[in-house]
## 1
Amino acid sequence: MTQSNPRISKAVIPAAGLGTRFLPATKATPKEMLPVVDKPAIQYVVEEAVAAGLSDVLMVTGRNKRPLEDHFDRNYELEEALTRKGDENRLKKVQESSDLATMHYVRQGDPRGLGHAVLCAAPHVGDQPFAVLLGDDLIDPRDPLLSRMVEIQEREGGSVIALMEVDPEQIHLYGCAGVEATAEPDVVRVTELVEKPEPSEAPSSLAIIGRYVLTPAIFAILRETQPGRSNEIQLTDALEKLAADETVGGPVHGVIFTGRRYDTGDRGDYLRAIVRLACEREDLGPEFRSWLRSYVTEEM
């Protein structure tokens, strides 16, 4: 059924985590600022939001996250130095981050989970649908996911989550969705959500990955959601209530993503993401791939 739903323009990026898996690198540097080739991971996420038409970005931050604000702000001293040198290429790269979107920031305070981080965005979001992008998941821009999710939400209403098929033995690492098929092969109706189930209890092998398009009805549910796993307010628990009762905030749909995704929250996957993206760069790829072939051959 075609509906007329408000155009989505706001994105929320939770960025209050401590990044303990990357210590000691993240002792004084936010994990979101770790470079993926020559851009911090967080910039890829903001670029994805902008590419999907979301020009208003709220970051939910915490202590020691000031570098995030600095990165998306102007640096007049650096820009002036590059201008004097006539280094137009680097000047353009420096200015890109400050010109991407209208940026806003709010502190989470107590780190009480993803659901609580989303709830912190309520005053900024208001009564409009909005997107949530987790910084650990980088989605290749050649495989647009968020724009497809926005399309489904604007047509169907309710909320939309991103799903990806994973090895059933790995489903305990993710939120998991029970689903029903629709007429579109990449879209499902979500009937059940379970946070990090044991493989024997999982309703499917479809894992929730870090992209959501949410109805503002989620805020009222989050306010009533009790802490769950890890004593945190889980966004999955709130979405489960939406999926169970569509009268609360419309249906919950899932978009099944089969494209390229880079998990920068895991050290091994972070390194693989850098290698993949470097290999595909026109300016770095040819020389880097040649070196990589030689290195791998020597090590085998």
## 2
Amino acid sequence: MTVSKFYEIKGEKLIRKRKFCPRCGEGVFLAEHKDRLSCGKCGYTEFKK
């Protein structure tokens, strides 16, 4: 998947579609799985409810 699919442009605003990793900071997106969000860099995981 290309990085350009993580962003959307509306007018003159840039909208990020995915959440950033709270440990790694901005620039590292969380991967979306069926039941969780996870960071491939540090291993941080959030489970969906």
## 3
Amino acid sequence: MAVVTRGFGGRRPEPEHEIPPGQFVTDDFPVLSAGPTPNVDESRWELTVRTETGEGTSWSWEQLMALPAEDVETDIHCVTHWSKLGTTWRGVSLDTLLADVETSAEFVMARSYGGYTTNLPLQDLLDGQAWVAFEFEGEPLDPVHGGPARLLVPHLYFWKSAKWLRGLDLMDDEDLGFWEQNGYHAYGDPWLEQRYA
């Protein structure tokens, strides 16, 4: 004999967006930083990619703006458990920036104005996975969110998307960035809950 309780409606409906384990959805865009917001004027902004041999390629703001840009719609996930769904960004793909850079490096250290660093495998910046973003929701990127330009690597926890980006150092061997030296996971996959080492 089956027992049926009042109000039982069967299976729960599937959520519109799947989010990584341990996350909650927010409509806000929380501001979290390892230090004060640097004042980086576009007239003095520069991005430098340095290879493992020490060879460097740099772009001014005007040169970055002259490159083909892409619109990106993506969910973002912070290690502090919030996820923001359906965000829209505009930026230059790392595929474009690294197209003419000769390297055999496997790792990258992203460096920011203000001194912040974070490490990533180079393969995670290629094949349409990462951008230098300069707009958010159709507006210039606010300084508290990394403006004038930040790294956007949405498939990893958001601390990997370095704010106030100023350089990418290509490396043969992995070195740890700021949060990684302070106990965060070296990779940071939100779907695997790689929050801490």
## 4
Amino acid sequence: MNSSAILTSNTFKIGGDLTVNRLGYGAMRITGKGIWGPPKDQEEAKRVLKRAVELGVNFIDTADSYGPHVSEELIEEALYPYPEGLVIGTKGGLLRTGPDEWPINAHPDHLQKALEGSLKRLKLDQIDLYQLHRIDPIVPAEQSFEFLQKAQQEGKIKHIGLSEVDVDVIKKAQEFFEVVSVQNMYSVDNRKWEHVLQYCKVHNIAFIPWFPLNAGNVSSQDKLKQVADKHNATVHQVALNWLLNHAENILLIPGTSSVEHLEENMGAVSITLSESDIKELNSISPK
């Protein structure tokens, strides 16, 4: 398997005008343990970002809460001035109180600080894709949406996306702005949000799965391994490739803190699954 092959096909237009390769990079893991503080090896984290771009990645997903702030700062340090065509998507709406702690705050006052901070850290005048990290159970969603609408009208945001939402929430948000992306947990063995994926597919909305391999599902691991062995690939590569095959609006953002693992992930695009492989993987029961 040639894991260093440049990814040049399989593209999607976010918002109809930002053309990205469907195998991108998620920059959550270039932080410390518990997605808190700086990474153990800061130089390796920067090498990962640079290597991702070398391998054809032109869509990087991050958030102000990763670190917090660490991921965005490293992206700027490693890649600024950004290569032409690089799309950086970031998110706001979560607070950080410690390792693995993610309180929600989508109040307009917090979103204002989060957005301004992201623009400054990334050295951007406009965020290509700004995503609401979570709907706040305390703050009416309309207030969050009104803030995003206003920020877009002011030119601080080009396109707007959502995360962990159902179809009703997407429809409500569409009363305020065009929803161009949805990030929900989804994998070959966790298809709870299949109906959201299909809605997004019909409406040409990018669907960005996070946690693309439900590692606790032993039965799925067995089937994935059987297919992986046939293709001299890893289980993770097959899981990623299945997602690319499953729907043309899926964008992948596998994350890692090592160049070696990054190159393995990028090798997922070079696998050619047969119809019988896909049928076998489609039969996996969710955990």
